[in-house]
Write a structure and sequence with these properties.
Helix content is 33%, strand content 22%. The chain is built from 9 helices and 10 strands.
Length: 233
């Protein structure tokens, strides 16, 4: 596999055996960012769950205190009074039949889809488009709701939605490299606190097996779990 000179330099400065406290890891990732665009800081959390069992899968959402540094585009599938709520809250796209037809023709150009309960029957016609992108509205993530106004507002504020993959790992963005170290750390802690509340009853013992921070074009650093005891225990 070809490795660029930039990546070689980054790998030389990150020891795979290093396990750092969150703030030190964040500072290191920020320092190693040398690309010409603002990299995203991501977190990967390995959970002590069996993802093959539906009652152990973890799915949820939370509002990060400092956002994720990205303009979020929201589509609302609804009719009547819910459309007015969507407009007032600042939704980028709204409608039902017309919006569905537009997506069939033009594809997806939004980050979050929110729907009123009564509109869900019609959304099955574009399930094959929304589903693979993780955009199909779901009550567990708060994207099927009567409260369209607050759902849109929360999404615009920097609400993240997450779910574990087939290996029991959750990946999500928690900021940009130009955020202060403290702001990224606050976002990380808020995410972990929210995740802790979703621990399935069937998951016994330690819930958080491994936490890794990385930047979109850089290396990854493992976080010292003992330094997060007040957050994850």
């Amino acid at each position: 596999m070809f490795i660029s000179k930039r990546m070689k330099k980054i790998k030389e400065k990150i020891n795979k055996k290093d396990i750092l406290k969150a703030d030190l890891a964040i500072k290191k990732l920020k320092k190693l960012s040398t690309v010409k665009f603002l990299e995203t800081i991501d977190v990967a959390v390995n959970l002590n769950i069996n993802p093959k069992k539906s009652d152990q899968n973890v799915r949820g959402s939370t509002i990060l205190p400092n956002g994720i540094g990205k303009l979020i585009k929201v589509a609302v599938f609804a009719q009547g009074v819910h459309i007015e709520q969507a407009k007032l809250a600042g939704a980028d796209f709204f409608g039902l039949d017309d919006l569905i037809e537009r997506i069939k023709l033009e594809g997806v150009n939004f980050d979050i889809a929110i729907a009123s309960p009564e509109s869900m029957d019609k959304l099955t016609s574009i399930g094959s488009i929304l589903g693979p992108k993780g955009l199909m509205p779901n009550p567990k993530s708060g994207t099927i709701t009567e409260d369209i106004f607050n759902a849109v507002k929360n999404a615009k504020k920097g609400q993240i939605r997450f779910r574990n993959d087939k290996n029991g790992i959750i990946h999500t963005a928690i900021g940009k490299v130009n955020f202060s170290t403290n702001n990224i750390k606050e976002n990380l802690f808020k995410f972990l606190e929210s995740l802790k509340k979703l621990k399935p009853k069937q998951s016994k013992g330690t819930f958080f097996k491994k936490i890794t921070l990385s930047s979109s074009m850089g290396g990854s650093i493992m976080i010292d779990l003992s330094s997060l005891k007040t957050i994850i225990d």
